[in-house]
């Protein structure tokens, strides 16, 4: 088993060699002194990841071979002029950096205590390694997610093994690589606090001294100093040069719109879809306008008439015409609310299963309600979830729905006709393999009665429905060159993708929350065993 | 003949590790679909790479030729197909290719008319067109070649080597992931898979004793690409001999039915042309399809003529027609052993062996051979992976690698170097030929698990061990020199020629070996009787 995992190393080496989108930060870190990194803006693609990532790029740029550099890999220009050597080099760095992920997962597999668990962990590990999401995003679209998720896995494994200090360390490192992991930072914070720094066994403190004893000060100091040290290493140099404000401006650009250029399949996608439908209704259907204006008071007809032109163009900045507009702090509050909700049980009973569960929920909440969410963020939900699935059979249908809709929602990232077959088949074969093997290794739950069978059927129907959706949309895309009328649907295509996928993502989120809050047997092994003996 | 218990010879391969979880009866369809889908994925990924003649006006390459045929067959009446502007990639494959192109051209025009607009579309190179063409190859392969391979291994599993269904799937996967065919069809761009698949279907039907069907499939294959003639002698003698032997039960009905099906299929292929343009059409097709006025070899190819040409300059000694006759004689001599064997002993276990030997003899000795023609002998050779003999397996893996190597100059010209290396490594790794790397890692104290090798990479015979190791090291040396060392000025093609001579040596040794095996198997059978 362990051997097979190692062999998988060769696997992505194959696919990733194909060429596609490519970005260029190497030059900034290579050519400029450190205090200029976050100021440079010759190119549109400014450095907007945290410092460790910048260091990482700097490290990579040391290894640019001569013939690649001559190819124009590290020229600091507005738009990169480069050829095949550069593409090869960059793709190679992705593969090489992914070794971190393999190593972390290997660690996870070897850390398992018995053979049954090992088999289960192996399925989890290989499902992550072979994930079509990683293929699409990392190896074709081009990013370094595999490497970063490797660090995440490392900290998860350490949490499982009880090395809480290392868990905190790795997560802090991860945060300094890519700040998108802030989505799941709350659950790490609460988990480590509760399991490492507090005495949860003791009763509620009644006196002040008990309150103080409740906290394990030694552990708190150890953990705190580790995390602070990591951040110091990361941001120290920039603080020294007085660049901190620039760094933070780059990291948190609130100026961007509510939804990303391709709509991520979240609440806001559905929200905007409803808005669009309402617009069409008011404009086309007589009488509908009256009903709508009863609900939403006023309709600005002048804006509405311009709406047709506004919607089709860039979606970067979405305006709502009928439904109330959304501000960043609305999304922030919603996200926070749902995250806090998931953190409460974790604080009370910090088991490993709950920790992963709340991590999934945190990521999910931010994905669904966050401001300017990228659809790639779905990986952040799927990866922790895959660690969770083998614990209980009840989670499997949810997982299937989530992965199917999540990975399909990544499809619009690759719009070329050449990759269409590749991405669909990869997702399809992955899905078939792993729904089979998860089915085999999942632990049966004792309380099967709580499963609602009609929902299972709906799940399957939904997943099967993805296939015709993909095919029809692609057909429309192909035929749009012949029939001018279909050209108008270009944007509708994307809407359909994200709307259909968001049904899946939101639906499985609901079910997951239900299980998380109401079904204790999944989250605590002791309860589960108790139920089994009954 | 059949062993009582089949031991999978791919037991230690990664392929086995991947597919063995699906060995339960209800899961076996999953394994089959996984290898097919994964085969498509690999082919798609190769298809993202460049094709032959990309961005090289004015003539471009094979890709443009195929596209051009779709263009002319879509727009012109049938009688002009073989006459239209012959200087620019005139149609020079038999009728079935023309019909195939016609259908694809019609379908493609539904999507985008400009792809196949007459004359205007010459040299068109858009990404969407490329994807369309790639998909047509993929679909053709999926419809013909892959089912044929699965049928073949299934028959073998049931009647010959008694492999369990999961082992059959593993063997089929090993055949489907043969790198040379993938890189030529999906990288360089050709439709060889259709011709090979049709021939393979004919073989399967022979095994099932459907003689008329077999001959129909074989004629279809011939009328897709005339290169299928490499297999023709074996088919001919096998069919003849099953009708003739034993003399006491001479079967004229069978002979007639075979003959009728051959003639009718050919007639169906040519009738539309005769109907539209008279008999001169047939003459023109034959002239186009068999261009005997070209030289004895065109490019550098690892056959007898080109390899010995290094020493003996044939063109200075003999005239063109003399050369033709000599090559005809040599080819006849080359195919004689296998033809005689199959004629005297028409057994099913000999069939694949004789096909390999005969087509390899054609490749080595016949006139006007192209380096891509190695795919023809390679197809039956890879089918030999069904044999229950680890020596055979290692020989087959070796020759598959050498044939990939022999196409290196061509692939390098097409900028397919990356795909060449990746596919080579992928297929060898899948078949477990790279397991020795792990042993070295183990020796270097790197903790990796090593299992008992069921398939040794090298055969048991010392001579073959030396040959295989020697050829591999020579091949790697050549790659190394090719990359780091400019060829000397007065010998600009030295690396290509070395490649060719080396491959020729390996091929001819392998050819001798197949003949030896054929004789061995045929006489074994006699003794047993």
TrEMBL record, chain A:
Localisation per UniProt entry: Endoplasmic reticulum membrane
Keywords attached to this entry: Endoplasmic reticulum, Glycosyltransferase, Membrane, Signal, Transferase, Transmembrane, Transmembrane helix
Transmembrane segments: 88-109, 121-140, 180-199, 220-241, 261-279, 331-348, 395-414, 420-438, 459-476, 496-518
Membrane topology qualifier: Multi-pass membrane protein
Pfam family, one: Alg6_Alg8
Top-level lineage group: Eukaryota
Signal peptide: 1-17
Family of the protein in this entry: Belongs to the ALG6/ALG8 glucosyltransferase family.
Protein name, entry field: Alpha-1,3-glucosyltransferase
UniProtKB/TrEMBL annotation, chain B:
Membrane topology: Multi-pass membrane protein
Gene Ontology cellular-component annotations: endoplasmic reticulum membrane
GO molecular function: dolichyl pyrophosphate Man9GlcNAc2 alpha-1,3-glucosyltransferase activity
Transmembrane segment boundaries: 30-51, 132-153, 228-247, 253-275, 325-344, 350-369, 417-441, 462-481, 493-513
Pathway: Protein modification; protein glycosylation
Keywords per UniProt: Endoplasmic reticulum, Glycosyltransferase, Membrane, Transferase, Transmembrane, Transmembrane helix
EC number: 2.4.1.-
InterPro entries, per the entry: Glyco_trans_ALG6/ALG8
Record's subcellular location: Endoplasmic reticulum membrane
Family: Belongs to the ALG6/ALG8 glucosyltransferase family.
Name of the molecule in the record: Alpha-1,3-glucosyltransferase
Source organism of this protein record: Ogataea philodendri
